[in-house]
Amino acid sequence: MTMLAILQSLLLCLCASAYQATTIPPLIDVPTFSLSTTSGDDDASSRSTMNILTYASPVAIKPHRMWSISLYKGTLSHENFTKEKRGILQLLRPEHASCKGEDDGDEERNLIRVLGGSSGRDVDKKASCERLGFPWETLKCNGETTDNAGWPQVLPHCVYYLKLELVGEMIDCGSHEVALCRVVEIVSEDDSINAADELDYISTRTLRDMDIISEFGRIKDVE
Predict the structure, then answer these.
(1) DSSP assigned state of 168
(2) SS3 of 160, please?
(3) Lowest-pLDDT choice from 40-54, 58-72, 97-111, 141-155
(4) Residues 6 or more apart in contact with residue 11 via CB below 8 angstroms
(5) Contact at 8 Å (CB) between 53 and 69?
């Protein structure tokens, strides 16, 4: 056996030993969204609720812009979206994660914990966000209210907003259901129009560094 063949055999052995089966998912860094939904009652804005959502991605651009989102079963957001088949996806900024209330002992002191760590059935998320300086509002474009009949309210100062409508049926994936959605409209603040400004969003890595979520993506208890 030549020296070259020996070296090749050693490299193959090293490469083979570098891989192994694992049950630990990769720790990835993805944008953090909030999905706003409504129950579809007469006053849709008063029945809005919001959650934290990180399983969201664009999947097509023609003939329509399409996104996929994944909703945890049993939540109010899942119930609303399944019923009304629409919602507004909001890309959050760092300021949404850094805001705090006056009471440091209150779990509501952080907006991410309010939206992602509690249920809209048990907590008035709208009132909690208002106390934190983020009162919910009707979505506007160029100072004008868009066609918001049947659409939920939104958080102020998000990077952008995607109005989504469900296409087809929800896909059962076990703990979650996946929705393929058509983008009805994209709305952005004036200072977010440039592509470089879109980088100013909150990510899961930042939330882990801030000790808000765990490595499994769940909201951590306040110690």
Answers:
(1) S
(2) strand
(3) 97-111
(4) none
(5) yes
Where b means 16+ CB within 10 Å and e means fewer, 117-132 reads: bbebeebebbebbebb
The torsion region of residue 211 among left (phi > 0), alpha (psi -120 to 50) and beta comes to left
Question: Token pair of 93, please?
Answer: 């900024």
- The one-letter code for the residue type at 101 is G
Each residue's pLDDT tens digit, 69-125? 999 999 999 999 999 999 999 999 999 998 766 554 445 568 999 999 888 888 899
Contact 88, 50 (CB under 8 A): no
User: Ramachandran region of residue 74, left (φ > 0), alpha (ψ -120 to 50) or beta?
Assistant: left
**In 10 A of CB 65, how many CB atoms?**
17
Cis before 156? omega within 30: no
